[in-house]
Each structure stands twice: as structure tokens, then as C-alpha cells.
């Protein structure tokens, strides 16, 4: 039950807290970050007493405050919490607190719900803060136009809603991400200066260059150290992130961190009684660098009721094995070989539906091609299941080729201006999911496929971006409506098929966010399976997502996307740390390579509980040519690390390297896992511990492993070494 709050309330969990003072007209944030502990009445009064700064020259005649819903009414001249207008009027919102609910959970965390009223436009604003036991603070915002007799009939045009939280003076360095096809989540850093640093995504999805998780911290923060604050916008469409610092600060705080959906003009028009629910923004703080942030988000995701609970099956996806060349005999041979090497889920990729001999035609015609598949997919699906594997299928429901029966029969279902679409991308347009007939057609088509063929898994792709996302004769913007309709489509399909699993794919990693993951079961990190590129892509995808949600497949050499030649042991080791799979024609592999693949699937099944339930750790190294990453069991009893060399270095050796996540006072033993073959070494021999660890377990104390560090071997480029650790009684 909600409690009657004191004047100052807090949400606390896992060493972090949010403190809000219920001032009027609008509450203000006193603190967000490190847990201040159980505050007495005197403590709370002291916090409030120190929450006002000086009155500045040439400024308001009272101290500036940063509230939960900042507007110009309080002298805030940064980005407002919302802006809009009522037929050109009501441009100076003055919200006021109307109601408060505050709940504390016994396991830590709780909820704070603030209701504000804005009389000028007749708005009710609900601002809900939920502190998860992981310490992640999720903020949900809703704006409703009151339906009253005196309400003006004109709609209120809501043009932006932004969730904002304050940052302290020491948070002066920004880390976010950019990218492109086959190079997603490339990190970029910059110092925070005065002004507004904004990232806007106008692609109809987060995009391959998604900011993903915007982090601000102490200068030089790394994986294992530094105080950091971060935000993620859980939305699968247009997005807006910002970090903002004004010369006068934000109350006694220095700057603000925020995000929300990027709204197109005229997209959200609230008639009396209408509501807009903004995407949830997830905030997290950590005193232990990026690994501390990742641990909070991984814990949050693993606690969801919808999080996968069964072991993640090893996958073989047919794309890089056969491409569009679908032949039943060849695919049956591929399935036989997949079962032999230990695959648990066989996925038929693009090329199975009507007219689909290339990417130029067929999208939208979701029936099995009768020419290529005269007996449907049943012969393949039945054989896959008889071999002990699940059967999965690739689809791209949100898209349509102009060369398709669907586009010819229903041109009005194609998303775009009434005057006609612009250029195609990947030879396709977008299907207007906000059209109820198009939405119903897709649900019926997908439902029939899943029913007919007993499909356990859909690889759900979304290849092109949304340009000119308008529909209807008046070209009404519908980027928001497209995402809402896609969510409803996935939800409806899963309601009909509760056991169905779905992967979010979008030309690789172009739609990875916690909005889509609220209804799907994993993401495809990238179309690039080149292990050198994948090392970085997977490392940074793991900043938000735990390994079991990230598809990590190995492909052939040379790579399909980069033409890079690579050693199969390196490809296999790279793909081990996630939801593992194969993207290769393994019927063409020799006996030696097949033996390593079989050993790899067995190793993955053995280590899967650790890999998919442990704590992700990454070492801070001064040399970008090498990486050390791993997973440590939650109780610290076991760990697996990968020592990786990408290129050569100026240094001849790496020296001692600490293994993160182990206890300094623990007793351990170490061995090298060589089932996938040993890497190529750029040295004559040693180090001595390595020589012994190749033969069996070597006892080593935590003081050496976690504090002094292990002298690491020098590998040749594009090589990786697997190191297993277990704690002694």
C-alpha cells in the first residue's frame, strides 16, 4: 500500500539512491548517486538546507532549483521536460504537484509516483520512478489531456517529453556509441563542456549508430574504476539523448542527463481524454566503472519474469551456408551435419517464401514458395525435429518489396507519402503497420506459419530505415505509431504461441533496446561474424545486455562481410561468450574442423550455466591490441577468461595482467582449455605458469591472480587463449 510520504523521500537499493524533496509547486531532486544511508529527520533537513545555491548576479532574485519537471517557470533555461502548444497558445507551462505515492520494497528499492497538473493546457502529468533491487532507476512518464466541459476542442500538440536527472561537478566525460552496418556499437568519448550534447536518431529504429547507453563519469573512467552515471531509452523508434551543462548549473548540480522519444511534428496530438506514454528511461549509477554499470543492467534483465529460463540452445542459421539457394536435399544434409556436431536449433533463413530468389522480390508474400518447396517446409521441419533440434524461421514482417503480390494488391498498405514513395532501400519499402488491415494480415500470416510448421523460433528482421514515415491522404506522421503497432504485433503473436521465441534483428544490431527486449528473447549483435570485429561489437553490446541475450555466431573464413581470413579456433572462441551459434556451411568442413566444432558445442553446453548466469568482467589494459574479458560465477566459485590479441604491439610482452572479479584473499587453481586448439604464440616458450596450466590445474592465490596479476603470453595477431579458474575449498 502507498504510504503517506514525508517532505523528503528516497528510493534506495544496491548502494544507490534517489532523494526527492516534495516542494511546491514542483518537487526537486536533491540527490541521485551513491546511497546516503538511512536518513534521519535531521539528515533530511540538512540535505534540504544545502540544496540551494547562491543567488547569482544578473539572474533570478531567488536561488535556481532543478525540479523533477523543469520548465522556464522556475528559471530553467536548459531543455524543458516537455514542450508543446494548444493551437499556438499555452506555451508557458506551469505544472504543480497534485498527488504523491511512495512505496518501499523489503528487498530494496520501491516506487515514487508524482502527479502534476498543468492548468494552461489542461494536462495531467504522471512521473513514476521505480528503483529496482539491482539499483537501476526506471522512469516512466505519461501526459494526459483532461476531458472536462471547459476543455478546448483543439488538440494539444505535444512536441517533446524528456526525462532529466542531475549530475555532479565531477561527471565531466561522456561515453556513447556510433556505428554502421557490420560495425555496431563503436565507442566514442568526449569531454563535457558548456551547452547541450544531443544525439537524435531519426531512422524509425535505434539504428546501427545508436547511442545505446550514454554514460557520463569522472575523467578517465574505465571498465573497473571510476564513478559513472548512465541512461538508456527503452524505445525501438526515433530517440533523443542529451547531456547538458549551463554556466549557472542545474540548481546546485552541475549538469543533467536525459532522454526520451524523438517526436515528429504533429505526431502526438492530444484531444481531451487522450494520453501519451513516453518510453521508459533506465538510469544507473556505479562507483566501479563500466563493469559496475553492466552488472546492474544484467541483474535487472535477469530478474524479469520474461527472461529466458531454459538453457540457450546452440543454433545453426542457414544464411551463410546456402543464402537464397534453397534445395531440400542440401538443407537436409546441413541439418544432419548440424545434429552430428551438437546443434540444438536449426533456423531456415531468407529465401523460403514466394518469389524469393534474391532480395529484389517477395517480401510481404508470407507463404511458402510452391516451386522450391512443393511439399511446403514440412519435410525439412519434421526431419529437424526428428534429429532432436528445434525448427526456426527467418521473417521480415515490417517490410515489403514493390515486386510482390502484396504491394501490387494493396499499394495503400505501403508506408509513405500520398504522392508516392521515395527511393527503395535494399529494394524494399516499409509496410504501414498502423493500417489495421495490414496489421491483421501479418498476424494471420505469422500465426499460420507458426501453427503449420511447429516453429519454435523466429528470426525477426527489420532491414531498412523509415524515411518519410507518414500515412493516409494527409501524410500524418506515424513513426511512433509504427513502433506501437510492431509491439502489438509481437505481443499478439506471443499470446497465441506462449513458447515461441523471437530474435530482434535489424540489418544486424540496428534495433537493440530494452523496449524490443521486453517482448523478444535475444538480439542479433551484428551481421558481421568476422571475429576481430566481433570482439569489439560483443564487448560493447555487453555493456547493457547479458551474454545469453546476444547472438554470437561464428562464420566461415574468409568472412562474408570483410573477406578477412581467420583461424577457426579464434572464431570459435569469440563466439563462445554469448548465445552461441553457427553461420557456415559445415557440410564443406573437413574432419579436423568438424571435430573442433563438435568440441566447441560440447564446451559451450558445459560452460553455459556460467556464461549465461555469471558476472561479465573486462580488464582495463593500456594496449588496444589486447583484450581480457570473462565471466565470473555470482558466488565467485568459478570463472572463464579469454586473453585476446587483435594486432601486434610495440611492447614485446604484456607483463602481469590482473584477472578481474576474483577475491584477493581467495585460493584458486587455473588451467587452459585447449579443446578448440591452442592459439599461435609469438614467443619461444612460457610463461612457466602457462606451461603447467596446459597440463592441468595450477594452484595460485587470489593475491597473485587479482592483485599482482598473471604474466600473460604473447600471442600472434587474431588469436585467443581460454583460461579457466575455480576456487579451492
From TrEMBL:
Gene3D superfamilies, sorted: Aldolase class I, alpha-galactosidase from lactobacil brevis
One Pfam family in the UniProt entry: Glyco_hydro_36N
Family matches, as InterPro entries: Aldolase_TIM (IPR013785), Alpga-gal_N_sf (IPR038417), Alpha-glycosidase_related (IPR050985), GH (IPR017853), Glyco_hydro_27/36_CS (IPR000111), Glyco_hydro_36 (IPR002252), Glyco_hydro_36_N (IPR031704)
CDD domains per record: GH36
Signal sequence segment: none
Hydrolase keyword on record: yes
Annotated EC: 3.2.1.22
Gene Ontology molecular-function annotations: alpha-galactosidase activity
Record-linked PROSITE patterns: ALPHA_GALACTOSIDASE
EC class of the enzyme, as a word: hydrolase
Keyword set, alphabetical order: Glycosidase, Hydrolase
Domain of life: Bacteria
One biological process term in Gene Ontology: carbohydrate catabolic process
SUPFAM superfamilies the record matches: (Trans)glycosidases (SSF51445)
Protein name, entry field: alpha-galactosidase
Originating organism: Actinacidiphila rubida
